[in-house]
Write a structure and sequence with these properties.
By secondary structure, the chain is of the alpha+beta class. Among the domains are: 4-93 and 438-702, Alpha/Beta hydrolase fold, catalytic domain (Rossmann fold, 3-Layer(aba) Sandwich); 346-434. It has an 8-stranded mixed beta sheet with strand order 36-37-39-38-40-41-42-43, with helices on both faces. Strands 7, 8, 9, 10 and 11 form a 5-stranded antiparallel beta sheet that branches. Helix 2 (84-95) crosses helix 3 and helix 2 crosses helix 10.
Length: 708
């Protein structure tokens, strides 16, 4: 292929901190000649062309060839960036430190995960008691030659004798479950396939799990998933002998989630029609009930079971409480008029409630940071659990007879710290602190509240090196998500540290659509109000520019999944505002997303083009359908992976092809299409480092950063 010369105007770079290198021009291969097809769809009288429909067939030979050509263009470009190896080496250096999970106790054993530093997958260890010698229980690195097999779920039987282990291959959502004997670590004959969004829920001599029917050959990662079912597997039996426990033939597009109470009295089934709204059914196993009874009706509100005290069931819900409350429900008379508040709705969002040692642990979010309180089962607040600083705490809870448990704490510049909590005294002691090769004292975090287009105050964290000059010349990366009731809270990122060390400013905005302030905040950014999310993000970018953190020529934007939709929408609505855009595994075709795998479950969040009114607002922001001819778009790196069966790669393929055809100007528009990788979960360390090196090299080069 003939090479083109693309002038890249960047600031001079320093070698060894002193000698300047000359400005460099990168050569770039021409984009692949992507064929088009005559495909026009009629949406309620509106004709919509879809010329790259053929790219949806990701296993077809012509699509595979197109992917190969796109990756060749991208890698040819990236390998010319003079500091790419330096960035990869620094990322590898920072990444190489021991990482631990919080330990958890099961019978006589304490389990924990550990990664020595650069291992592709963390290893599961166990030991007898605190003074026991740790030994490997399961090493996922030995399940594949390239580290792409990962541990997706792990549950221990009630008698602590067996472990059910879910394994995912190449980042797919499909899981395969097998069973090990805990004491001997021997793998048993049990083997369960075609499991998705489910682990094993133990009951007596077996477990409940959810699965779909086996998909068509060649369509495992793209076909729509329908008719999820709950089965019970008895140890020692084959999967074909498993007992069907629950199905709904009238509603093929529903999710189910089985849950057995700790005392094994109840089997609960959580039902949802998507990512928002639920209902709960239950059966009294101790009374050998044949039929399930309705505990909480769907689907206008959200419910989840916390625990039970005999016939009294504790539920966390947003019913009449958009910031959530804990209620007690009498299983003999579950009518909502009889529900009693145990912990009433508060000013801050009740994010989660854990149990352990006969206590309740309520985690609240206050302006996107954790606060944790210990309560009695009667709802009396006993004390706040002191946390080291503003950040994110998780892991509060254990078994009813536990005297202690472990929890984790992290922040933007604090790698995971693990604390041991004494339930009786309420005292936390530092158990383990990670040591990373960087100096956290060099950085600081600031939280600001900026006005969106309609005046709504939106919080944003800004992290940077101390002593920063607000001269509008700092390379900046703005990240957000804004959807599905998901809260973005302070967390530690290895790759982000490298960016900060190079003088970068990292901003994280807590947009509407997320869960930071409860269900009202969520609903203000979903369905026909989704534009609020994009307005919040655009306002964040404008704030960073007006406050002189950066300028439009120094500003990059990044987001994944629903955040990839965010980036796609904002770069097509305001292409002038950013220099770099990195949509990762994004939902980019808003007219057809619901036709693939489990995309139908997002219709409660987005709406569906099958509905005329919802089509009207979807077409207005759908990134794929709002790319315009002869517009100069930011330097763009579209990232996806071949085994992403959550947000299928067709979204990214079609968006990339459209951008390359219509974009005008010298900014590169490239695609990074990973192999043997999925939506992100379980990605091996080697692939994470490769991706981070590529993404940050692309961003820093096009932001004109001075790399030291």
């Amino acid at each position: 292929m003939k090479k083109l010369i693309i002038p890249i105007l960047v600031a001079s770079m320093f070698a060894c901190g002193e000698k300047k290198t000359e400005r460099k021009e990168l050569t770039m291969l021409p984009y692949p000649k992507t064929k088009t097809v005559e495909q026009v769809d009629d949406y309620h009288g509106h004709k919509v062309s879809d010329p790259y429909r053929w790219l949806e067939n990701d296993t077809a030979s012509d699509v595979k060839e197109w992917v190969k050509e796109e990756n060749n263009v991208t890698q040819n470009y990236l390998k010319q960036i003079p500091f790419r190896d330096k960035i990869k080496n620094r990322l590898t250096e920072i990444w190489n430190y021991p990482k631990y999970s919080a330990p958890f106790t099961e019978g006589d054993y304490i389990f924990f995960f550990k990664n020595d530093g650069l291992q592709n997958q963390s290893i599961l260890y166990y030991q007898k008691g605190e003074k026991g010698t740790p030994e490997v229980f399961l090493d996922p690195n030995k399940l594949s030659e390239d580290g792409t097999a990962s541990l997706a779920s792990f549950t221990i039987s009630k008698d602590h004798k067996y472990a059910a282990i879910g394994i995912a291959q190449s980042g797919s959502d499909w899981n395969e479950i097998f069973v090990m004997e805990v004491a001997s670590k021997q793998k048993l004959s049990d083997n369960i396939k075609w499991v998705k969004f489910s682990g094993a829920t133990w009951y007596k001599n077996g477990f409940y799990y959810c699965r779909y029917d086996e998909p068509s050959k060649g369509k495992e990662f793209s076909n729509q998933n329908e008719y999820q079912k709950i089965f019970y597997h008895e140890l020692g039996k084959t999967q074909k002998d498993d007992k069907l426990i629950y199905e709904d033939k009238k509603h093929p597009l529903r999710y189910f989630g089985p849950q057995v109470s700790e005392d094994e009295k109840y089997l609960f089934i959580g039902v949802s029609e998507g990512t928002s709204g639920s209902e709960i059914w239950f059966k009294d196993l101790s009374a050998n009930d044949k039929d399930f009874k309705l505990l909480a009706p769907g689907f206008a509100n959200n419910y989840s079971v916390v625990d039970n005290m005999g016939d009294k069931i504790l539920l966390i819900t947003d019913l009449n409480a958009p910031k959530y409350r804990l209620v007690e429900v009498d299983s003999k008379n579950p009518n909502q008029n009889n529900w009693k508040d145990v912990i009433a709705e508060q000013k801050d969002l009740l994010e989660n409630i854990g149990t352990g040692g006969g206590k309740l642990y309520a985690t609240y979010l206050k302006d996107a940071s954790s606060k944790v309180f210990q309560y009695s089962y009667e709802g009396k607040m006993e004390h706040e659990i002191a946390l080291p600083s503003i950040g994110t705490a998780s892991g509060f809870g254990g078994k009813k007879l536990d005297k202690e448990f472990y929890y984790s704490f992290t922040s933007f510049i604090t790698p995971g710290a693990i604390y041991k909590y004494d339930i009786g005294s309420g005292e936390s002691k530092l158990f383990r602190q990670s040591e990373v090769k960087f100096n956290p004292d060099e950085f600081e975090t600031k939280q600001v509240f900026y006005p969106s287009k309609d005046g709504t105050k939106v919080p944003m964290f800004i992290i940077y090196k101390k002593g920063i000059k607000l001269d509008g010349n700092n390379p900046t990366m703005l990240y957000a998500y804004g959807g599905f009731n998901i809260s973005l809270t302070p967390s530690f990122s290895i790759s982000r540290i490298m960016f900060l060390e190079q003088g970068g400013v990292y901003a994280l905005a807590n947009l509407r659509g997320g869960g930071e302030y409860g269900e009202e905040w969520h609903k203000a950014g979903m369905l026909d109000k989704k534009q609020n999310v994009f307005d919040d993000f655009i306002a964040a970018a404008e704030y960073l520019i007006s406050e002189k953190y950066t300028s439009s020529q120094k500003l990059g934007i990044m987001g994944g999944s629903n955040g990839g939709l965010l980036i796609g929408a904002c770069m097509t609505q305001r292409p002038d505002l950013y220099k770099v855009a990195i949509p990762q595994v994004g939902v980019l075709d808003m007219l057809r997303y619901h036709k693939f795998t489990v995309g139908w479950g997002w219709a409660v969040e987005y709406g569906s083009s099958d509905d005329a009114k919802q089509f009207d607002y979807l077409i207005k922001y759908s990134p794929l359908h709002n790319v315009k001819d002869s517009v100069s778009y930011p330097a763009t790196l579209v990232c996806t992976a071949d085994h992403d069966d959550r947000v299928v790669p067709a979204h990214s393929f079609k968006f990339l092809a459209t951008l390359q055809a219509k974009h005008k100007g010298s900014n590169p528009v490239l695609g990074r299409i990973d192999s043997k990788a999925g939506h992100g979960a379980g990605k091996p360390t080697a692939k994470q480092i490769e991706e981070a090196a590529d993404v940050w090299s692309f961003a820093l080069w096009n932001l004109g950063a001075d790399i030291k």
